[in-house]
Amino acid sequence: MEQPVKGQVAIVTGAGQGIGRAIALRLSLDGMSLVLADLQGDAVARVAAEIHAGGGEAIALPLNILHAEDRQRMIETALSTFHRFDALVNNAGVQRIALPLDVNEEHWDLVMNVNAKATYFCCQLALKHMIEQRSGRIVNIASIAGKMASTTYHPIYNASKAAVLATTKTLALYAARYGVRVNAVCPGMIETPMQDAVDREVARITGQAPAEVRAERNARIPLGYMGDGADAAAIVSFLVGPDSRYMTGQALNADGGVLTY
């Protein structure tokens, strides 16, 4: 039987802004102590300060998720500081806009390395510890773009998030016998700085205004509005917590009804 998360320890990558920040704040509210990893040291330090101001525990850890030694340092920091490690949320990701025939190898390598490769190897490190202790939860932040070609303006992002979903399913099957659960969250249109940047880049390619791009995408959301980071964070909270104890290998959408599978 899984226990309530109060007093447990989670690592959140890409925790400096947007969905990552919302996840960090929500898991702290749930009673977890946090290791917050992000390439932007100042940003993640501000999130840790928010958590401290609310009475929670968090360590800001500036690092580059592409570096194996930095990924190892994440795990070691959780264990050396809090003496336990219960959950990993792989949220760090990048987005690049280009039409399919304009993608070059640098574009491919960056997006696939951050979104797919780093996620896989963070999972691998976490599983080595979680399997030994016969407990743990991993939540990978994918995207509805991994289930559908949500737009042709970010083809490699689509491919990378499909890879995250395949990783989630494969590792869930592998880890289940050890009492470790691996699930994913698939956000759709979420109000974040990354989404703002995407709208600007799509506008540059199409000749539209960013507001027009945003309006067109919003029109495809059945609930009629964009979500915010807290909407995705609530699903992460559920998947990390004991109420989802009988779920593994799943990919839950936070998209206002764009996808129904």
TrEMBL record:
Pfam families named among the record's database cross-references: adh_short_C2 (PF13561)
Superkingdom classification of source: Bacteria
InterPro entries linked to this entry: NAD(P)-bd_dom_sf, SDR_fam
Gene3D superfamilies, alphabetized: NAD(P)-binding Rossmann-like Domain (3.40.50.720)
Parts of the chain that traverse the membrane: none
Similarity comment: Belongs to the short-chain dehydrogenases/reductases (SDR) family.
Protein name as catalogued: Beta-ketoacyl-ACP reductase
Provenance organism: Dictyobacter formicarum
